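can u pls check wat happens w/ zinc ion
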Amino acid sequence: MTANGERDMRIFPEDGLKSVDEQGSELRLQAFLTEWAHTYPALEGLARALQENTLPHAILLTGPTDLTSQFAGLFAEGLLCTGAVPPCGECESCRQYRAGVHPDFHRVGEQQTGPVKTADIEVLQTWLSRKSHYGGNRVYILQHLDEITPVAGNRLLKGLEEPLSNVLALMTARSSSAVMGTLLSRCFVYPMQHRESLAFEDAAVARSLTALSAEVPSTTGETSGTDATDLIIAYFDRVLQWVQAWVRQPTRVLNLADDFLRIFSAAHVADGLHVLLAVLRDMIHVTVGDNRRLRSPSLLMQFQATDKLPLSVWLRAADIVQETLTRHRAHVVPQLNLERMCIRLCEVRESV
Ligand SMILES: [Zn+2]
């Protein structure tokens, strides 16, 4: 998974990446990484490194460009953020970052397209030669490391061989195989592959759907394969509509709880929460541009541009539903549990 050279390129505690409000913010950034690692398991290593204060100086994220680019951007923002829940999007640092004027952030190359050229690396070197504006971390993003010109690559290599403390390089490539070997040997590689076996979660969803379809007798008295499939699609559709109601009219909190109980009887709350979780995870994937393994069949057709929410909201929503499932297993009264879930979901929705 990692491809470091003979020299250890990690940042050690004595020159570790400093978070602006020291460990508090780091712990919260940890939660952000852990949530991502749920779907992209290679990031567990990154979460661990952050926890142990051994973040590598040079990180290479490989995978679909939209995905690696989105994650790199959020991670960079999170590393610079001084807010309560990084990346918070609200603190001065996040505002500067989003406006593209953060002095401790640099993006290599123009408009993120085309191969990185020598001139781009020269601009990077000038930026690197400056001191941190806020006295904390400095982060740069370099995309398409697999398309860098050889001359530019060699220039970059010098910088990677002599890393500066508190400077983190976040690089992306579609795959590591096309990256120059010398560069690759200086990076820690995190392949952003979708968790191969979402087996446990998929099995829980499958079990729930089987339980739900057994509950409703088909009109012919027998459940044929087609009927069962139709039923599964029908459940996903109703949950999708429920999620849309939450997105569009979050103030209808108690109606939402009642609606949920109308779709899934009290006996099937856990099954319903599994399906809801599957839909939310799909939304997380769609939001980061990864549509490869969606579990809700008609999600892409039903969700419209107006239903778009920031990734942080989908991540938080999935968290809340997961916690609701845990409370359900601890025998909290379904109605109360669902109402609490809906209230929290609506708070998250209204914070946007
Ligand atoms: Zn912030």
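The pocket of zinc ion is lined by residues 81-83, 86-88, 90-91, 93-94 (CB under 6 Å).
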